[in-house]
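Sequence design from tokenized structure. All designs in this work follow the same two-part layout: the structure record, then the generated sequence. An example of the structure record is given first.
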């Protein structure tokens, strides 16, 4: 066992305020912004690069130092900036991706030390005692190769296609999809079962529970929240029931999981247009515009979208 600062160089991040940053989507050059969150690897937004401020390199560990998500720890695989009260851990000796993941787990398990109200880890993080890699359990050693292999792209030796956003064409969602509503199902009426129930949430692929009612929508569709976490979009591979706060997109073209993931990402970028008082109901969603890679004749380039997703790290895990 060793103190954390014996295994890592510990620094305290950029201390930026997100409300003073300019939001910018990743495809347009945005940089991940890591805050004190336990979801989405701590990434709370993507922001425009700051002149003269180099983002932290990928491969480092971020740790939330305060708040309700204290010691939420993640490996950041791409360059990033941080909010206040986020620590950066840089290994003093080479570590595999699997070893870093295990270290994040060890750090999180120290949360009990900070149960007192308002206690933060700013001053004591460096002194936390954690296992060193040589002491990691045999289970970690046995699964290391499998974990490291998760990052493989679906297409071996594929080059990520260039994103030329200026050449993309606008399409209304109703040109591409038939859009249908979900149906209300109260908690009192739900029965236990195996049918996925999709709610207006922003995690777990929209899956909030399983119910005994038969599915009301087909699989191989995209769900989009019009209420709740507005504009969260997820690919649904299997038949499901979804709440009346969710709209369902049935493709007018041959939809594949990779193309669905490409389009769902673009739909999520529209969330800034909506707020608590402005929902993305059917009448607004049907004429809503997204821009897509296109071929001559204003035809979406589905093959490009498929190849783009399959060339990305972790795409080998797409079902």
């Amino acid at each position: 066992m060793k103190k954390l600062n014996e295994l890592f160089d510990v620094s305290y991040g950029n201390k930026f305020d997100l409300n003073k940053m300019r939001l910018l989507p990743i495809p347009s050059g945005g940089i991940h912004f890591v805050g004190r969150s336990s979801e989405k690897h701590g990434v709370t937004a993507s922001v425009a690069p700051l002149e003269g401020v180099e983002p932290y390199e990928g491969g480092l560990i971020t740790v939330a130092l305060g708040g309700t998500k204290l010691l939420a720890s993640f490996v950041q695989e791409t360059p990033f900036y941080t909010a206040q009260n986020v620590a950066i851990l840089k290994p003093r000796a080479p570590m595999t991706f699997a070893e870093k993941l295990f270290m994040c787990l060890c750090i999180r398990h120290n949360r009990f030390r900070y149960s007192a109200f308002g206690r933060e880890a700013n001053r004591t993080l460096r002194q936390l005692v954690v296992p060193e890699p040589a002491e990691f359990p045999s289970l970690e050693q046995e699964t290391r190769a499998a974990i490291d292999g998760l990052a493989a792209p679906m297409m071996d030796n594929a080059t990520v296609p260039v994103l030329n956003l200026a050449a993309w064409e606008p399409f209304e969602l109703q040109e591409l999809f038939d859009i249908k509503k979900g149906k209300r199902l109260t908690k009192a009426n739900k029965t236990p079962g195996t049918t996925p129930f999709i709610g207006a949430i922003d995690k777990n692929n929209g899956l909030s529970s399983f119910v005994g009612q038969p599915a009301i929508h087909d699989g191989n569709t995209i769900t989009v929240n019009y209420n709740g976490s507005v504009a969260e979009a997820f690919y649904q591979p299997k038949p499901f029931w979804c709440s009346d706060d969710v709209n369902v997109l049935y493709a007018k073209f041959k939809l594949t999981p990779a193309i669905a993931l490409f389009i769902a990402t673009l739909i999520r970028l529209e969330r800034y247009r909506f707020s608590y008082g402005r929902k993305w109901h059917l009448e607004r969603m049907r004429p809503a515009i997204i821009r897509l890679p296109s071929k001559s004749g204003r035809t979406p380039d589905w093959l490009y979208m498929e190849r783009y997703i399959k060339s990305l790290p972790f795409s080998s895990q797409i079902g």
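DSSP finds seven helices and 20 strands in the chain. We note this feature because it recurs in several other targets discussed in the main text.
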